[in-house]
Design a protein that fits this description.
This protein is an alpha/beta fold. It folds into 2 domains: about 160 residues, SPOUT methyltransferase, trefoil knot domain (Alpha/beta knot, 3-Layer(aba) Sandwich); about 60 residues, tRNA(m1g37)methyltransferase, domain 2 (Trp Operon Repressor, Chain A, Orthogonal Bundle), CATH 1.10.1270. Helix content is about 40%, strand content about 15%. It contains 10 helices and 10 strands. The strands form 3 sheets. Strands 2-1-6-5-8 form a 5-stranded parallel β-sheet. Strands 3-4-7 form a 3-stranded mixed β-sheet. α5 links the parallel β5 and β6. α9 crosses α10. It is elongated, with a radius of gyration of 23 Å. The termini are far apart. Pfam families: tRNA_m1G_MT (PF01746). Its EC number is 2.1.1.228. Homodimer.
């Protein structure tokens, strides 16, 4: 996968792209991570990327020219490869508070793409023509405002890349993560079995794998019910799991 990030602050990504899971994925050649300073694509002598909004109002608005020029440069630089390899057109993602809320399901969807381009804005907002005529997706990581789109882009990229086959040392890790199947993840324990009077649940040290899997599923369901009950509205549960949930609700009533 190739990932390009359009940003006014490429230095923010140096540490993130060079360390931990992302750094290892890049070193393995599984993913290409690069930044583009779209100020370099401004068509004026001062490299201005923003201007006052038409109609008045506070703040500055990102101009369309630098963004369009930078994206078109990236598309042109990949044109031959796209033609020769049959790679699909990239998803062009605008990080924006008005976008769809980013979810694990969206991360899984994007992990199957071959090329992602992220646009990170600053100031008051974007010229609407960027939104209407250039981007394919608008994403938000939550209902709050940050200084720019860089931190949200980092979060999305990390979430997507770790789902690409070969990135994680243990391929089952991504499968059992919270939200992967719609539920929160079950509790984890490791050695020692007893620490300061606090013990690991007996079932986990029993060696009985069927009982362990059942316990983990029950714990995921219970944790989701107590912490994020709204998630249960879109989760498919087996008849046995529906009975577990019914018992949890009955317990709460009493």
């Amino acid at each position: 996968m190739r990932i390009d990030v359009l940003t006014l602050f490429p230095e923010m990504f140096t540490g993130v792209f060079g360390t931990s899971i992302l750094g290892k994925a890049r070193d393995k050649g599984i993913v290409s991570l690069s930044t583009v300073n779209f100020r370099d694509y401004a068509n004026n002598k001062h490299n201005t990327v923003d201007d006052m909004p038409y109609g008045g109002g506070g703040g500055m608005v990102l101009k369309p020219e630098p963004i369009f020029n930078a994206v078109e440069y990236l598309l042109q630089s990949k044109a031959d490869e796209t033609i020769n390899s049959g790679i699909h057109k990239p998803r062009i993602i605008l990080m924006c508070p008005q976008g769809a809320t980013f979810t694990q399901q969206r991360a899984q969807e994007l992990s199957h793409e071959s090329h992602l381009i992220f646009i990170c804005g600053h100031y008051e907002g974007y010229d609407e023509r960027i939104r209407e005529h250039l981007v394919t997706d608008e994403l938000s990581i939550g209902d709050y405002v940050l200084t720019g789109g860089e931190i949200p882009a980092m979060a999305v990229i990390d979430s997507v890349v770790r789902l690409i086959p070969g990135v994680l040392g243990n391929e089952n890790s991504a499968v059992t993560d919270s939200f992967s199947d719609g539920l929160l993840e079950y509790p984890h324990y490791t050695r020692p079995a007893e620490f300061r009077g606090m013990s690991v649940p007996d079932v986990l040290t029993s060696g009985h794998h069927v009982n362990i899997e059942k316990w983990r599923r029950q714990q995921s369901l219970e944790r989701t019910y107590s912490r994020r009950p709204e998630l249960l509205e879109s989760v498919s549960l087996s008849p046995e799991e529906q009975r577990w949930l019914h018992n949890m609700r009955d317990t709460d009533k009493h």
